[in-house]
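Cross-check.
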Amino acid sequence: MKMPMLNHLSLVVSDVVRSATFYQSVFGMEEQWQEAEFVFLSCGDADLALVKGKPLIHRRFHFGFRVENQAEVDAWLEVVGKHDVPVTHGPQDYGDYYTFTCRDPDGYTVEIYYEGPLRGRAGDVTRGG
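Predicted model, tokenized:
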């Protein structure tokens, strides 16, 4: 059997309202549902769930938004800058992969990237032959 798609990612955050406001104002996500210390935000075909708790952030954990081209990455870099969001890497051009990362209010790493000919779903995996 094979899952057809990833539907949502749930992040444990220290302040649900602060994090929801961040993802709505910076990335344009829309609130779909809220109950007490839990909120669901929409983002294309996948959603982001935010739940109150103590964030457990591993240094390698991150999630990414794939965009259509390099110009769009640069446009998002400007948006992030206007919101005083800390940029932690990039922008970096790897030829067929253009990226930058930033941090949300709890310190989660968020990547915004474009990849030319798709190298793999995660962008860092080459499909072998």
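The chain has two domains: 7-56, 57-120. DSSP finds two helices and eight strands in the chain. Passed to J.P. for a second look.
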